Amino acid sequence: MTEADVVYSDVKFTKSKEKATVTSSPNESTYAEVKILKTEPSAGSQQQAAGGSKVTAERVAVVVLSALLLAAVIALGYICYEYHQTTGHLQKLTVENAAMRKNITETRCEVIMVQKPCPQPPADTCHKCQEGWEQNGPQCYYFSTVKLTWEQARERCRRDGADLVKIESEDEQSFLMQTLRDKMTEPEDKFWIGLTDSVTEGTWLWTDGTPLNKSLTFWRKGEPDNWTEVNNTQYVDGEDCVRMGEKCESGLKWWFDEPCTAPHKCICEKSAEIDA
């Protein structure tokens, strides 16, 4: 122990007057030296305090991380909700757009009929589809509910002066998609379209002989895959014809290659009749 740790104090003691044998002056005093040690916290106490601070800091960190994780989960849930809401709204707008276009076409036809006769037919002549056919612009579509092979389906369309549908735009694919959703009864309830590579494998042609525009295709992910066995049935020629339809999913990627001899419904297409 160093001198810096010691505090000195002078304490004055007065001699007792009861002892008559000792002669002393009343003012005579005796001094004693008393040492008082300064107290300091022990090393163990310091370590305990430091340990307590560390535990408290760890608890605070856990609480903060838990709060951040909860906030992230809530944010992710909100984003998913907004995505589904936006997708549903987009589908609704697509349906409303198709209905509005159909209504405009019918209204235009009525106006033209009222204005007859006219010396020269207007450039935008009114197009009409026969009963049972769906109209989209100048084209008419028939959705057959009879399941046939691809060749049989094509013959079915030809009897009505049509052919299996040829899809040439995103607008046309969207129209067919929205219409098929109401006509499909199950996921595998798909429809033949007029696309095949039966002449040369990998070279896709429409029924009129024109090649498929590779910048305008609507293949499902992983398609075409040209399987030679489907549902334990062997197909020597693979999958050379195309069907479309997807009841429970959004988007336009609805094309699947399929063996041409498989039975499916079909979509026929022909130009609308012109009202002169």
Tell me briefly what this model is:
It comes from Sparus aurata (Gilthead sea bream). With 276 residues, this protein is of the alpha+beta class. The protein has helices at residues 43-115, 150-158, 170-183, and strands at 6-14, 29-37, 127-128, 134-136, 139-148, 163-164, 191-196, 205-206, 229-230, 233-234, 241-244, 255-258, 264-271, 273-274.
Protein described:
There is one protein chain. Helix content is 35%, strand content 24%. The chain has 276 residues and is of the alpha+beta class. Among the domains are: 3-37, no CATH class; 127-274, Mannose-Binding Protein A, subunit A (Mannose-Binding Protein A, Chain A). Strands 4, 5, 6, 7, 8, 11, 12 and 13 form an 8-stranded mixed sheet that branches. Strands 1-2 form a two-stranded antiparallel sheet. Strands 3-14 form a two-stranded antiparallel ribbon. The termini are far apart. The chain crosses the membrane at residues 60-81. Pfam families: Lectin_C (PF00059). This is C-type lectin domain-containing protein.
Topology:
Blueprint: E1 6-14, E2 29-37, H1 43-115, E3 127-128, E4 134-136, E5 139-148, H2 150-158, E6 163-164, H3 170-183, E7 191-196, E8 205-206, E9 229-230, E10 233-234, E11 241-244, E12 255-258, E13 264-271, E14 273-274
Parallel strand pairs: 7-13
Antiparallel strand pairs: 1-2, 3-14, 4-5, 5-13, 6-13, 7-8, 7-11, 9-10, 11-12
